[in-house]
Known about the structure:
The protein is 31% helix and 21% strand. The chain is an alpha/beta fold.
Amino acid sequence: MMKSLLNMPVSCVDTPALLVDYAILQRNIQRLQEASDAAEIAVRPHIKAHKTPQVAQMQIQAGAIGVTCAKLGEAEAMAAGGMEDIFIANCLVGPTKMARLVALAKHVPHLSVAVESIESARQMNDAFATAGMVLDVIIEADIGSNRAGVEPDAAVEFAQALQRFPALQLKGVMSYAGRLMYGTRTEDERIECAAEEGRRLSAIAADLRSAGFDIQVVSGGGTPTAGRYQKGCGLTEVRCGTYCLNDHNQVDLGACTTEDIAATVLSTVVSVPTEDRLICDAGAKALDQAVSDVTEGYGWLKGYEGGYVYLINDEHGHIDRKRLQGDLAIGDKVEVYPPRICTCLNLYDYMYVVDSP
Length: 357
Ligand SMILES: Cc1ncc(COP(=O)(O)O)c(C=O)c1O
């Protein structure tokens, strides 16, 4: 949820707290939308990074056609927040999920779900057939994540197998080429990666169409390659997620700069025990444990060149005082850029929306 601190001093917030700079958020949303409009590719942002209906509304107002969710719970929250077109880009399995999915479909005019196993397809079909409803499904193919998804050359056979499920309507094909795009470091690599993703996914779509399937949706995209998909690349939509908030991982990948990071963790210096280190109140429970391959440490201090959290305990963040340009005293507040916003934001119930300094 969002709490507005616009026109209010950030100092009134107790720490640790998640801050989101409204102007940067708006600019990031607008930038992807404009690049995608120019490329004639629809935007269906993944909301896993912000998990906030108000941000999703900003994305829809900018021109997004709907949202993508990773989990049923996220989709339920987005539906409650007024989203009318939701794609759940994940494998759903089990009777509890099926009951929730049917309940959700009754409230969402356009709901679609990824499918990549016959077992999940059978469960969704049985649940929707019993409810007298039809569910739109998008085949998940694995073109470069080594995660879930059917192998590209098995997509046609899988689509044919889905024909035995009358309560499922095949609408398209999707993939998340995470390993490909998060392996890029230069602008040329990012542009080529976006093109390669388009080639791989549109080849699968072409196979499916040749086999007689009506493939309307070819869905890909992610943040390192956001805004780099060209007209005619083969994708009908992109599901970039992190791009609206960004994080230090994206900076270290070269995909954006710190000026593009909208989300920071506000933290207070609580101890200055030695000449080497400062302790702040943002530890693992405020910044997240996960460290990416490219980002050193657990968070970087905004406005303090070289300042970073090199070690975390549950409630303590250790800041390297030697590398910090400038000094901080007990009681000072600092903003920390998290390495990875998805898992960091997941630790918070609220984001405080603030003005740019
Ligand atoms: C299926 C799927 N689509 C889209 C995304 C968005 O990726 P990014 O955060 O790089 O924009 C993710 C991220 O994990 C994903 O799993």
